[in-house]
Amino acid sequence: MHTEIYYFSGTGNSLFIAKELQKRFPDSSLIPIVSLLNEKVVQTKGKAVGFIFPVHALTIPIAVKNFIKKANLASSEYLFAIATREGTIFRGFHKIDQLLRNKNKQLDAHFIINMYGNDSRHKGFKAPSEADILSLEQAAIEKIEFIQNIVKNQMTCREKDSSDAIGFSRHPIVNYLLEKMVLSGMTVSEYIGGVNYFYADLNCSGCGVCEKVCLSKKIKMNDTKPLWQKKVFCYMCFACLNFCPKQSVQIKDIPGVKSYTKVNGRYPHPYASLKDNLEQKGF
Length: 283
Hints:
Layout: E1 3-7, H1 13-23, E2 28-32, E3 42-43, E4 48-54, H2 62-70, E5 71-72, E6 78-85, H3 92-101, E7 109-114, H4 130-152, E8 157-158, H5 172-192, E9 198-200, H6 209-213, E10 219-222, E11 225-228, H7 239-243, E12 249-251, H8 274-280
Parallel strand pairs: 1-2, 1-4, 3-5, 4-6, 6-7, 7-8
Antiparallel strand pairs: 9-12, 10-11
């Protein structure tokens, strides 16, 4: 059974999962979603088709949403999805099923794998140690072995999220309202063309790494300084923030959310590289 694994990954978590899963399916293809977003229609060829991506604001990334809309999944006999996340609740599999319903399809299986987050704007964010990464990696590999068996045998497994709240408050009503606010914020962001809250501070060396890793091509070097083009959509992958060798890329404060990127560390997955993001863009 030929398997196609479509992935979206800003700083490497989802790419790591996609590569590990591909190793377990000799007759499989690993395909970057970003490289297909300019196509009018994406024609799949696999009998089994999977989507692997990080959680963005409790739901699926906008790039993944746009990809699924374009995908002609007539070849598929089995559909699965894997979401990587730091730990907050995830509401995206229902959204994927809504998109697939227009194609007379639905997910046969979906899974969540916990990884370290790459959003360093939050107070108290700490880059994981090598021991922390190895611990999560071991748990992720065990989960991948479980997923391999499910997909190989084309079993139904619509895994429920073990988290029961957004986790910002102990009060369920507050969590509910915060969750709705986050999801609404994602909708607004998509409507207005993405976020425009990144900038480079005085530590910027003009190396151009941020431009190279930017999956949406929003960043353009201008006189050795990065410019986040307002008319280009941001995929909110946070690659520019986490791959910057000088940690000079910062996030501005926005209403209701103070940014701590100036004092916090960064987290690109240790196995991820600049080359990986260039390949996602088709370079």
